[in-house]
Amino acid sequence: MVGLLVVSHSAKAAEGIREIAAEMGSEAAPIAAVGGDPDGGIGTDATAIADALAALDADEVVVLVDLGSAVMNAELAIEMSDKTVVIADAPVLEGAVEATVAATSPSATLDSVREAAERAGGTSKR
Amino acid sequence: MTADTDHGAAVVAAVARVADRIADERAHLTDLDSAIGDADHGANLDRGFRAAVERVEALDDPTPEEVVQTVGTALISEVGGAAGPLYGGGFMRAAGTLDDGITAESTVAFAETYLDSVRDRGDARVGQKTMVDALVPAVHTYKKSIEEDGLDPLTALAKAVDACRRGVAFTVPIRAEKGRASYLGWRSVGHPDPGATSTLCVAEELLAAAADSLDAEVPTDVDATAPTTPDEGES
Questions:
Q1: CA A102 to CA A105: how far, in whole Å?
Q2: What digits encode the pLDDT tens for the residues A1-46?
Q3: In the CATH scheme, what is the homologous superfamily, with its name and number, of domain A2-122?
Q4: Is the ipTM of this complex over 0.85?
Q5: Stretch 2-61 of chain A: residues touching chain B, C-beta under 8 Å
Q6: Can you give the residue ranges of the PTS EIIA type-4 domain (chain A) (predicted)?
């Protein structure tokens, strides 16, 4: 099973994006959210991301990130994780929605979910 | 006490020095970051280095490698933001270069490994207004001073700090291409990069700590751009 993790500088943004994406999915696509620095302020925290990866009920995980340091802290967390984890080069909200839909497919793979997220990069708003 | 744990104690003292300096610079670094970033660099680093001091002072006769590894994990878990993985990841990866203790050779390897880690993690090149702009000249100057010019390590380090200072000055007139500051475009021009500035603070304190542990004066009149002649009897 392929899981999803949303990483944002804001815990509220991460949770909100998770909520929107989860509407598209089902129990077949576990999706978690993590955000904020170690003090609960705006930022990202490698340890919290690693903990969220460990808690997710999936052996393979696609991570959606917002800005710069989210990528670095997610990469560090992946180095600490024993799961197979990739970061999607995708806009965080649209990517999470596309990835959730792809993850609910019975034939979903890590690559198919990541590619779905990355296709969201070309999404037009109109 | 073996030479190794002696060096360990010297590294613990250096960490405490760095932490004190970062605490002193907390407001200054945050001011710099409020000009072109998200105004948390001073507070984040201060929290990280305070945790690092607590953790390394709790170690029992640590080796230099253990001290640096502990600093790295403390920074990763406490700093957050970009500075956590850049500083913490750098120290964690470079710690292993010190497994034979602190020597001219091992410190060159340490500096190069640290630089590689920061460059890889941040995917940054010189000229993008990041800490790399301060680190690259400092590390290259240190390596050349030791390996080619045959300077003693303390003079080489003083020269590296001068190069680091020039690197910070180099970040002032350029436009940011990485990190939060890059969203500001031309508005980032005219401000020193906060990460380059904190890197200089750390480098200055490492120099002072090295002089302390060698019971020597910090060399003055060291100009990173001047040609070098090894001292009599050195090299």
A1: 6
A2: 899 999 999 999 999 999 999 988 766 789 999 999 888 888 999 9
A3: Phosphotransferase system, mannose-type IIA component (3.40.50.510)
A4: no
A5: 36-39, 41-47
A6: 1-126
